[in-house]
Amino acid sequence: MKQLTLIRHAKSSWDNPGLDDFDRPLNARGMRDLPLMAARVKEMGLIPQRLLYSSATRTAVTARTLAQTLELDEGTCIAIPEMYEACWETLLNLLQGQPDHLDSIMLVGHNPGMADLGGYLSGQSLHHFPTSAVHQLMLNVLGWSELAESCGSTQIFDYPKLHT
């Protein structure tokens, strides 16, 4: 069995319309929600052996906060430029290439790719995957290359508005 945690970046700012989408920072709500979400991830014991994240500003900030909160070694966290605007198939291929000695991986990325990947792996359509959402899956596979449709089951689906 493998464990996969999918996390959508915290809420980003649209205050500067001239700023490239890749460079958008977190807004005030994102900055408020992020440490609370990271603390819940730690309380749930979702400590990955590897954290892969999009190198866009909002996902990098989200991933760094998670890494600090979870006390992850620097080498555990890897920026993957291809995760920016990635479709679920690209994310699936990324996961399928991970070494099998890893039992738990966390992805920090963007929608719709994250929601679509979670839906594909769990066999359940995720119509709502808000910012700072955490989707934890148990995967009924021995190796990452075995990932396939409906091979997993949702263990946790959490997001900030559930706690307000």
From TrEMBL:
Record InterPro entries: His_Pase_superF_clade-1, His_PPase_superfam
CDD domains, A to Z: HP_PGM_like
Coiled coil: none
Protein's recorded name: Phosphohistidine phosphatase
